[in-house]
Write a structure and sequence with these properties.
20% of the residues lie in helices and 29% in strands. It is built from 15 helices and 39 strands. Helix 1 runs antiparallel to helix 2 (16-25) and helix 8 packs across helix 9 (196-211). The protein binds 2-acetamido-2-deoxy-beta-D-glucopyranose (3 copies). The site of one 2-acetamido-2-deoxy-beta-D-glucopyranose has 6 residues, from loops.
């Protein structure tokens, strides 16, 4: 329909006014060939950036989108996050940070396009990869394979989103900004691993998606087996060597990793701007016509939305930092790159490159048409500068760099010559010396109210359904008066094996110890000597989840919690196995039950004040109130003096804090030159993986803001301060 509209516009000039009115509601379709996408029949090099709407606030969106536009983006790309939209079956939420339609309309108002990655599997370092936890417990469910219950659920959600977009007229042929959509996500490797059921599932979801008739192309990333008419796209740190799976497809790079995420316990990865710009120039000189920065703004994993062991910050070393401020020099350097590419666009779109090799490690791509010429000069040497001769002129190229000459003469840009300031953002204290109150959790006992008694140890998420990070495993051991250790003082040792992710062991209400895992190894084992007394002893294990896995074949089947064995060694009988005895289970904390995380719940509770306030005590809730600091700089909490837990302000979940988990890794200075990997450039070693926690301005009232912190390990709240982010 759209192309008919365009043809008429060209052929019947006299009717133009009338027809262009008619064209407002029926715009041209999005098409493509092996060279590029075409919108309204016009070829484009499309520059895209990922911004995930739940990772910032609606109040931040206009500015983020504005800065994307200033940075030279054409497209904003986002996933759709099923688990925030359907927290329980059939109950939908599209409010506030989850207002997808509002986000897309704001992008449209700024004149940008949208790539909507519906998934609904998103991975994204997001809790459970974006699937609602309840989905796992539906009858006969198996994720991401040829499984009827899964396919019915997936189709229902995808259709719901597509219908919503259609009824809001958001697809491009309807006059909206959505020019492409993605189904599934990086399914290629899973299909390869699981074989026939994966192949059948791929055929099913491709057909299902096409049947929804969205009027714009469907993308499948990292999946060479993408059936017609799906477009297979590349994800990675470099994609210049990528070949589309079919000859009629444009060369697309859906995830160019601008940096990397941080796991708790890991060092802070960063990717030098020189290398990121180099990877983009290299992609475009090799026929690339669509690329996307993953992420352009990473933002924050508020509340409990992080995937397994992922920090609350999702900064990603993206061009816009977690707070939405330009991450210099990266933001500016890429903005300059985009200008150079746009200047070269006429030549890039009208021709294929001629490639020559003037010297070792040197490469020249020339795009030449009747009316335009653009050249890319590359030096791949990782150590030395090159003097590259091109059309009898010398060009000086730093190591590992590409120069762009939009007119085949003037170097307007080199990927390693940064023309921008490099000042890093700073955190400046604005409010400290807050006055705190405290509330102590108590250690529950087997047989308390609201405990379930079962034989043996049970998987954690099956019991909590992820409504809380916390599950108590409670049991008792009876010590006979004849036990030898009562006289020898050679205490028995307790061993507890857990599938993860962190564990606090209490014996007779006293903390015996804490252990925690990591992204590489979520499983933990606790071993400690224990001073048991004659008679009944309480064993209370507080198992803590730190986000659910988001990636891996059948990651939905990974276990959490104490699955044993749990043993006592050094008794008269030798080893006593507690694994199969009777255990009681208690979901969540007392404070959670009392809703201390809300303004209403926390004001109804009795808090200790003044000298009674508990310091450095495990399992303690803290509360304070404060007035919003002046100004409009972004704010964060400096949690350096705390261990591990969760934070809320005015009923909003700030996230999990864990400054007690320090960054391990090799933080040697990294050189931008040479192939980048996520382990190459690391910072913060020996410091907390995350010290500062974003508190969006829009969550604050002028006065009387209620901040609540739950501290698991014990910390000093008096040293918590509010800081502002300044660049
Ligand atoms: C660009 O695409 C053309 C046409 O498919 C192909 O012949 C050529 O080898 C490609 N060049 C590069 C550098 O990838
Ligand atoms: C969940 O727990 C129930 C018992 O409460 C058990 O019957 C079921 O098999 C468990 N399911 C999974 C997936 O672990
Ligand atoms: C599906 C998948 O794993 N995609 C990931 C590619 O890498 C980025 C960076 O970590 C992830 O966030 C994507 O979700």
């Amino acid at each position: 329909m759209g192309s008919v509209c365009k043809m008429l516009r060209i052929n019947i000039l006299a009717w133009m006014v009338f027809l262009s009115l008619a064209c407002v509601s029926v715009r041209a379709t999005v098409s493509y060939d092996e060279k590029s996408f075409m919108i309204n029949g016009v070829r484009k090099i499309l520059i895209s950036g990922s911004i995930h709407y739940p990772r910032s606030t609606p109040e931040m969106w206009p500015e983020l989108i504005q800065k994307s536009e200033e940075g030279g983006l054409d497209i904003i790309e986002t996933y759709v996050f099923w688990n925030v939209h359907e927290p329980s079956p059939g109950k939908f939420n599209f409010e506030g940070r989850f207002d997808l339609v509002k986000f897309i309309k704001l992008v449209q108002q700024a004149g940008l396009y949208v790539h909507l990655r519906i998934g609904p599997y998103v991975c994204a370092e997001w809790n459970f990869g974006g699937f609602p936890v309840w989905l796992k417990y539906e009858q006969g469910m198996e994720f991401r394979t040829d499984n009827k219950p899964f396919e019915v659920a997936m189709e229902g959600f995808v259709k719901k989103i597509v219908d919503m977009m259609k009824s809001e007229k958001l697809f491009e042929p309807q006059g909206g900004p959505i020019i492409m959509a993605q189904i599934e996500n990086e399914y290629g490797p899973v299909e390869w691993e699981i074989g026939a059921p994966g192949v059948a599932y791929t055929a099913w979801f491709a057909k299902m998606a096409v049947g929804l008739d969205i009027g714009v192309p469907w993308i499948m990333c990292k999946q060479e087996t993408a059936p017609e008419p799906m477009i297979d796209a590349c994800n990675g740190f470099y994609c210049d060597g990528f070949k589309p799976s079919k000859p009629n497809k444009p060369k697309m790079w859906t995830e160019n990793w601008s940096g990397w995420y941080t796991p708790y316990g890991g060092a802070l990865p960063y990717r030098p701007a020189e290398d990121l710009a180099f990877s983009v120039a290299k992609f475009v000189q090799n026929n690339g016509s669509f690329f996307n920065y993953y992420m352009y703004h990473g933002g924050t994993n508020f509340g409990r939305s992080s995937g397994l062991f992922v920090t609350t910050s999702y900064d990603f070393d993206a061009p816009l930092d977690e707070y939405g401020l330009p991450n210099e020099p990266k933001w500016g350097h890429l903005t300059d790159l985009h200008k150079a590419l746009k200047q070269s666009e006429p030549a890039l779109l009208a021709s294929y490159p001629t490639v020559t090799w003037p010297a070792t490690n040197q490469e020249v791509h020339v795009f030449k048409s009747d009316s335009a010429c653009a050249a890319f000069l590359a030096n791949y040497d990782t150590k030395d500068w090159a003097k590259l001769m091109f059309q009898n002129f010398p060009y000086d190229l730093p190591p590992w760099s590409i120069s762009i000459l939009p007119d085949c003469k003037t170097e307007v840009y080199n990927t390693a010559k940064i023309q921008r300031k490099t000042d890093k953002g700073k955190m400046i204290p604005v409010l400290s010396g807050l006055s705190w109150q405290s509330y102590n959790e108590y250690v529950p006992s087997a047989g308390d109210d609201e405990t379930y008694v079962m034989e043996g140890l049970w998987e954690q998420v099956n019991i909590t359904k992820d409504y809380s990070d916390y599950l108590w495993y409670l049991t008792e051991v009876v010590i006979d008066p004849n036990e030898g250790f009562l006289k020898s003082g050679q205490w028995p040792s307790l061993t507890v094996m857990s599938a993860g992710h962190a564990l606090n062991v209490f014996v007779n209400d006293k903390l015996l110890g804490t252990v925690y895992g990591s992204l590489e190894k979520p499983q933990v084992t606790f071993t400690g000597n224990v001073n048991l007394k004659e008679g009944v002893n309480k064993i209370s294990l507080l198992s803590v989840s730190v986000g659910l896995a988001n990636v891996g074949v059948h990651y939905e089947k990974w276990n959490v919690g104490v699955l044993g064995p749990v043993t006592l060694n050094g008794l008269n009988e030798g080893t006593r196995d507690l694994t199969k005895q009777s255990w009681s289970f208690k979901v969540g904390l007392i404070g959670e039950k009392l809703n201390l995380d809300t303004v209403a719940g926390s004001s109804a509770a009795q808090w200790a004040q003044g000298l009674q306030v508990s310091l450095k005590q495990p399992l303690t809730w803290y509360k304070t109130t404060f007035d919003a600091p002046n100004g409009n700089e972004p704010l964060a909490l400096d949690m350096y003096s705390m261990g591990k837990g969760e934070m809320w302000i005015n009923d909003e979940g700030i996230g999990r804090h864990w400054p007690g988990n320090t960054a391990k890794g090799n933080c040697n200075n990294c050189n931008y030159a040479g192939t980048f990997t996520e382990k190459k450039c690391l910072g913060q070693c020996g410091q907390p993986s995350q010290r500062w926690y974003h508190v969006p301005r829009s969550w604050l009232k002028p006065t009387g803001n209620v901040l609540v912190v739950f501290e698991e390990w014990g910390g000093d709240p008096n040293r918590i301060s509010l800081v502002k982010r300044v660049v």
